[in-house]
Design goal:
Strand content: 35-45%
Largest sheet: 5 strands, antiparallel
Order of helices and strands: HEEEEEH
CATH architecture: 2-Layer Sandwich
Protein name: Transcriptional activator HlyU
Number of helices: 2
Pfam family, one: HlyU
Helix content: 25-40%
InterPro entries: Transcription_activator_HlyU
Radius of gyration: 13 Å
CATH class: Alpha Beta
Organism: Tropicimonas sediminicola
CATH topology: Double Stranded RNA Binding Domain
Shape: elongated
Distance between the termini: 21 Å
Number of domains: 1
Structural class: alpha+beta
Number of strands: 5
Length: about 90
């Protein structure tokens, strides 16, 4: 989903949440609805010289409720940021 779509409510019917800032990165938890529940997913963004770079984090974990899926998505994104830092973007 593009930044403009997120800002102006385009796309799916899921309620939008404010991105969480962590160590200079923005984390946008975006669990994916599936038949078995909600798959853990988040977009990680960071600005470099006026350019926004993003990385899509998708995990095999599936949760039964949206709040739990968002919490786990955010926690997994933070762990990835701790492990990879700026190298996350190549």
């Amino acid at each position: 989903m593009s930044l403009l779509s997120r800002l102006f409510g385009g796309g799916g019917s899921a309620p939008e949440v404010e991105p969480e800032t962590y160590k200079g990165f923005r984390i946008l938890p975006e669990p994916i609805k599936e038949s078995g529940g909600l798959r853990v997913c988040a977009t990680i963004e960071k600005d470099f010289d006026g350019e926004t770079r993003s990385h899509r984090l998708i995990r095999a974990d599936v949760c039964n409720n949206e709040d739990e899926a968002r919490e786990i998505s955010t926690a997994k994104a933070k762990k990835l940021i701790d492990e990879r830092g700026d190298a996350l973007f190549g």
